Structures are given as C-alpha cells and as structure tokens.
Amino acid sequence: MSAVMSVTRPSMRAVRLVRHSMTNLSLNRNVRRYCTAPAPAETKEATAETAPTPADANQMDIRVGLVIKAEKHPEADSLYVEEVDVGEEEPRTIISGLVNFVPVEEMQNRPVVVLCNLKPRNMRGIKSNGMLLCASNDAHDVVEPLAPPEGATPGQRIVVPEDDVPEPKSANQVAKKKIWEGVQPFFKTNDECVATFDGTALAVDGVEGNVACKSLTGASIS
After folding, report:
1. So which domain of life are we looking at (predicted)?
2. pTM for the full model?
3. Could you tell me if residue 34 is inside a domain?
C-alpha cells in the first residue's frame, strides 16, 4: 500500500495576509530609501529683483515746472486742470487730484516738479500730459506737491546726480518697459523733507538747493 502525502491548501485569508505583508515590506523599503537618500542640491536663484540704479531713474524726464493757471475740473470735484510751463513752446495741460489737499489759490503761479515722459491719459474728458510729483503719507490723507529749489527755471531737468546722466526715454519706451513702475518705489523724502532716489538727493544742474516738500518725511513720491 503506497503512502499518500496529504497537501493542505492555504486559505484565502492566509494568502491575503501574505500579500499584505509583502506590500508593506516593499513600501517600507521605499520609505527608508527616500528618507535616507541625500537631499538634492539646492539651486540658488535670485528671488529679489535687482534694485534700480541712478541711470535707471534718470531715464525719467523730471523737470522744473510752473503752474500758470489752475481751476477745478468741470466733471470731477477732486481734480484740478492746470496749465503748466515745462520749458516748451506751449504749456502742458496736466490733471492733478489735489483739490482736497491744496487750495486753488495756492496753485496759481506755483513752482512744481513735473514728470514729463508719461503717455497722455484721458481724465474725465480732458487729456493730461504729465504728472505733478507729490509726497504723500501712508494713509494718503496728506499730499504735498514737490517744489524745485529757488532759482530753478521751467524746463530744467531734475536728476539723480551721476557722472554721465542719460537722455530720458520716450513716453512709449517708459510705458513699454514699465520704467516708472520700477523706479518709483525708490523715490522718497528724507528726514529733512528733501526728495531723494534711494537715499540720494535729487538735483537741478547749476542750481543750489534741494527739491523738497513742505513737511512730510519718509514719504512716498509719485
């Protein structure tokens, strides 16, 4: 009589347990491999934008101006319509939101600082050809127009002093390359209310004195 070997088939539950254990073992190996692998080398990328230079700021055409006449905008209570001499054949029409900050009588024959190479903007039906630069506090509830130094004449450029001051860019170039947006945050008043670019006082060639506002220190200029 031959011996018969009895083979017991594993239950389905046992098979599932074995498969589960093997899967966990594989996962654990992968986790260990990931956790003990050397960290990838960090790439040093410049996250902060390079600060603009005086040459960048001097691409803006900032000039001495003189308000010849100012009156309220017929369609906007907070705006003045000004005729401003910036050294050209004809005065420029410029719209400014200064009604709530400067009485109209103080705007007449007022020396100002004008940003001239901006593209014209239609403001409530009247085209504005430039911008009066002003200092303002953080809340923007105090706004003071910048004033050029005594003795400066309309049309003279106001620059950040450097050895070789470049010619200003055209209005189209300023708009296309967003030059004003790049340099504007660096224009501020110092502790003496003097207008500066990145800490350097603005100047009018051949004229002593500073571009300044009346009373605001550490104020943004725009």
Report:
1. Eukaryota
2. 0.78
3. no
